[in-house]
Specification:
two-stranded antiparallel ribbon; globular; alpha/beta; 11 helices; 13 strands
Length: 358
């Protein structure tokens, strides 16, 4: 029997550095043609290339429905600026923004900034989680109806509906409020790669979507169950968490059947499990794992974006759509709607309407 919950699919559009915006626009539009939930654009301080968040801000007006999720490194980056930049992407995309939190662990990257030495992964992911926390608080620091824009009275905002956040983290403090009004989604979607132990706690606490890497459906299911239990232990509704298996995909040899499991190709610098085969093979794997409850969907990284993303969309996704296992159109306009996630209520509005303090 097919799985009753929706299948979610996303794809990476990065690869070797490209400086022409048109290449990213072309790939994002291709993914949008397949009704994928979102595209990601990876980034780090240790590789050359344009800034992922700025690139997807350029892609936003050239697309209409697909979610846009750049990697944002929280280490060495001001949390207030992270919040403002992601909120701005949500505004320019009309509610299609997310961000994938990541950390910078090397001494070489630390020297680029000269502020502090490299730190252990555990401390960096604690800081990343705090950045996600304060970003959500800053997005809530403007209530949805805080803007008045009254020419007659000369009032732009209702100051009673702007709030300080007064956040104290382990390495930073933020007073707020934000300088960007509350985003269209309320809070843009937060994505974390929760494969590693230090990142998993931050994912359970703050992520809307978690990417995990696994070599079998049993391993993926175990990671999914662990993340859901951890989210519930933190007082979150685990049904509000989407867990996607991350695969690096090589569809260059379309007729080659992959070996059992995912051992049919080399590991790519620890950044993903490698799948090699044809579009039909990939579709069958997705169906088998999803029906078995291993994941809510898949995040696919084409090893050759221009070639493999086309084969994913016009081969794998088309087959899934033909079997009525994946949607053929977007029923909504925001990334949260694609993922089946509600728009979060503003914490200050809730506190006031429930008689509590904000």
């Amino acid at each position: 029997m097919p799985a009753t919950r929706p299948l979610h699919l996303a794809a990476e559009i990065g690869g070797p550095p490209r400086y022409a915006a048109g290449s990213y626009v072309t790939l994002a539009r291709l993914a949008e043609g397949g009704a994928l939930d979102y595209v990601t654009l990876s980034d780090s301080f240790g590789r050359p290339g344009p800034d992922a968040l700025a690139v997807l801000a350029r892609v936003a007006p050239a697309t209409t429905r697909i979610g846009l999720v750049p990697t944002v490194t929280t280490t060495h980056t001001e949390p207030f600026h992270v919040s403002s930049a992601v909120a701005t992407l949500d505004w320019v995309s009309k509610g299609r923004a997310g961000w994938q939190a990541d950390v910078s662990t090397t001494e070489a990257e630390a020297r680029l900034f000269g502020r502090r030495p490299a730190a252990p992964a555990g401390a960096l992911w604690q800081e990343a989680g705090e950045t996600a926390d304060v970003a959500a608080r800053l997005w809530d620091s403007w209530e949805d109806d805080a803007e008045i824009r009254s020419v007659a009275t000369g009032r732009f905002i209702d100051r009673d509906k702007l709030h300080y956040v007064d956040f104290e983290g382990s390495t930073f403090s933020v007073r707020g409020p934000a300088i960007v009004p509350r985003p269209p989604q309320g809070r843009p979607v937060t994505v974390v790669d929760g494969t590693s132990g230090p990142a998993r706690e931050a994912a359970a606490l703050h992520a809307d979507v978690v990417h995990v890497r696994a070599t079998s459906p049993e391993q993926a299911a175990a990671l999914r169950d662990e993340l859901r239990r951890s989210a519930a232990a933190h007082g979150r509704d685990p049904d509000g968490l989407r867990i996607l298996v991350a695969l690096t995909v090589d569809l260059g040899d379309a007729e080659k059947t992959p070996e059992p499991g995912l051992e049919s190709g080399p590991q790519l610098a620890g950044r993903g499990t490698y799948f090699r085969g044809g579009p039909v093979d990939l579709a069958e794997l997705i169906i088998r794992w999803h029906r078995g409850g291993a994941a809510d969907g898949f995040h696919l990284t084409p090893i050759t974006p221009e070639r493999d993303l086309e084969r994913i969309v016009n081969g794998t996704v088309a087959l899934l759509q033909h079997r009525s296992l994946f949607r053929t159109f977007y029923p909504g306009g925001t990334l949260r709607e694609h993922l089946g996630l509600g728009r979060p209520a503003n914490r200050h509005t809730l506190a006031r309407t429930s008689g509590g303090r904000s």
